[in-house]
């Protein structure tokens, strides 16, 4: 069982990287978010590994942090969630975003991940919410940026009423939302950013 591998990245594809150490190249499946952070890095990197064994295949899944790997393992421990679906979730959201959606019981947001319907999203919330309710942000401590507060949710609903799709509205709000903002300010700023983007 691998804990982590330290080496140099020698190749990328859309869903994996090749990590070389001691003249061995390991092909490792990684979330899109991890790939984005690793591209252009020339120094040695540490990738936390989950080894998945099936009858006909042994695969290595890699993550930028132990917390991401823990979430992956918790996800695949849920009935009906395989490695592919778990990687889709980790590629769609940052760790803090996903945990924010769990804590807010936001099945609509979670169901925007590929292969995850509302029924599955509700099962994820049911099985994981309590496990992650005390999670603190691993970056700047501001979990409010994942648009999980009630004000942010109301802003998303208001933008939906203005004919934006749920995923569009969610992205707009997440881009501008800061914990403690007033509802009208969130909506105004989201619309202003969208307007400048559309020009």
UniProtKB/TrEMBL annotation:
<dbReference type="InterPro" id="IPR000085">
    <property type="entry name" value="RuvA"/>
</dbReference>
<dbReference type="GO" id="GO:0009378">
    <property type="term" value="F:four-way junction helicase activity"/>
</dbReference>
<feature type="region of interest" description="Domain I">
    <location>
        <begin position="1"/>
        <end position="64"/>
    </location>
</feature>
<feature type="domain" description="Helix-hairpin-helix DNA-binding motif class 1">
    <location>
        <begin position="73"/>
        <end position="92"/>
    </location>
</feature>
<dbReference type="InterPro" id="IPR012340">
    <property type="entry name" value="NA-bd_OB-fold"/>
</dbReference>
<comment type="subunit">
    <text>Homotetramer. Forms an RuvA(8)-RuvB(12)-Holliday junction (HJ) complex. HJ DNA is sandwiched between 2 RuvA tetramers; dsDNA enters through RuvA and exits via RuvB. An RuvB hexamer assembles on each DNA strand where it exits the tetramer. Each RuvB hexamer is contacted by two RuvA subunits (via domain III) on 2 adjacent RuvB subunits; this complex drives branch migration. In the full resolvosome a probable DNA-RuvA(4)-RuvB(12)-RuvC(2) complex forms which resolves the HJ.</text>
</comment>
<dbReference type="GO" id="GO:0048476">
    <property type="term" value="C:Holliday junction resolvase complex"/>
</dbReference>
<feature type="region of interest" description="Domain III">
    <location>
        <begin position="147"/>
        <end position="199"/>
    </location>
</feature>
<keyword id="KW-0963">Cytoplasm</keyword>
<dbReference type="GO" id="GO:0005524">
    <property type="term" value="F:ATP binding"/>
</dbReference>
<dbReference type="GO" id="GO:0005737">
    <property type="term" value="C:cytoplasm"/>
</dbReference>
<dbReference type="InterPro" id="IPR036267">
    <property type="entry name" value="RuvA_C_sf"/>
</dbReference>
<dbReference type="GO" id="GO:0006310">
    <property type="term" value="P:DNA recombination"/>
</dbReference>
<dbReference type="InterPro" id="IPR003583">
    <property type="entry name" value="Hlx-hairpin-Hlx_DNA-bd_motif"/>
</dbReference>
<keyword id="KW-0234">DNA repair</keyword>
<keyword id="KW-0233">DNA recombination</keyword>
<dbReference type="InterPro" id="IPR011114">
    <property type="entry name" value="RuvA_C"/>
</dbReference>
<feature type="domain" description="Helix-hairpin-helix DNA-binding motif class 1">
    <location>
        <begin position="108"/>
        <end position="127"/>
    </location>
</feature>
<dbReference type="GO" id="GO:0009379">
    <property type="term" value="C:Holliday junction helicase complex"/>
</dbReference>
<keyword id="KW-0238">DNA-binding</keyword>
<comment type="similarity">
    <text>Belongs to the RuvA family.</text>
</comment>
<dbReference type="Pfam" id="PF14520">
    <property type="entry name" value="HHH_5"/>
</dbReference>
<dbReference type="InterPro" id="IPR013849">
    <property type="entry name" value="DNA_helicase_Holl-junc_RuvA_I"/>
</dbReference>
<dbReference type="InterPro" id="IPR010994">
    <property type="entry name" value="RuvA_2-like"/>
</dbReference>
<dbReference type="GO" id="GO:0000400">
    <property type="term" value="F:four-way junction DNA binding"/>
</dbReference>
<protein>
    <recommendedName>
        <fullName>Holliday junction branch migration complex subunit RuvA</fullName>
    </recommendedName>
</protein>
<keyword id="KW-0227">DNA damage</keyword>
<comment type="function">
    <text>The RuvA-RuvB-RuvC complex processes Holliday junction (HJ) DNA during genetic recombination and DNA repair, while the RuvA-RuvB complex plays an important role in the rescue of blocked DNA replication forks via replication fork reversal (RFR). RuvA specifically binds to HJ cruciform DNA, conferring on it an open structure. The RuvB hexamer acts as an ATP-dependent pump, pulling dsDNA into and through the RuvAB complex. HJ branch migration allows RuvC to scan DNA until it finds its consensus sequence, where it cleaves and resolves the cruciform DNA.</text>
</comment>
<dbReference type="GO" id="GO:0006281">
    <property type="term" value="P:DNA repair"/>
</dbReference>
<dbReference type="Pfam" id="PF01330">
    <property type="entry name" value="RuvA_N"/>
</dbReference>
